[in-house]
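Exercise: predict the structure of this protein bound to magnesium ion.
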Amino acid sequence: MIAQRVNVLLAFGANLGDRGETIAAAQREIAASPGIERFEASSLRETIALTPSGPDLEAPRYLNGVAAAETSLSPHELLDLLQRVEHEHGRVRDVRWGDRTLDIDLILYGGRVIRDERLTVPHPRAHERDFVLSPWLALDPHAVLMGHGRVDALLAAIGDTTRPVEGANEANESQEGAGAAAVGDGAAHA
Ligand code: A4P
Ligand code: MG
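Solution:
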């Protein structure tokens, strides 16, 4: 029997260490993992650190990006993979929303709504975060966030404070629209 594959959207963030290399290495590991297919990463954006008390211009800037993929993993198997990759990159959990070498969030898992002790999906704060919406829109101009609507409209409403990564060359730029099929069908429109 062929395992059913589900469209997922992952978000990556790092504000300590070699941020770009950490995210790139994590993405390579996830893309090569069993149960992950058609992995498609956005370009990265330079973003202002958001803390529980608001944007912090003094904190180290983040690099953020998203990736669309198909998976035959269950939501919790996928979270296990994401947390294993975070851990391999030295992620230490201490301060909530504190500085980190790598954070990987599951934004969407097909059309599923999940609320248990380990997972809340769709991610409850994605709709109000330019550092998620901006790279997602670059990857998929037609993206829709389940429960909230079109990503272009959401981003226009909150404003985009993110910036392209300085010195990013064309190889780092997203392949515009390439992720549309992976995220646009099912996951995003469910
Ligand atoms: N968890 C529940 N739902 C999910 C999900 N959809 N994806 C649980 C991933 N994990 C999920 O996460 C705490 C617990 O959330 C996990 O054990 C998992 O079971 P964590 O990564 O240890 O802690 P955290 O990331 O500090 O907390 P939280 O609430 O997930 O924070 P966010 O929402 O991820 O925000 N500013 C900029 N510019 N860029 C950023 O990327 N990120 C954050 C973290 C804050 N400020 C930022 C950025
Ligand atoms: Mg997190």
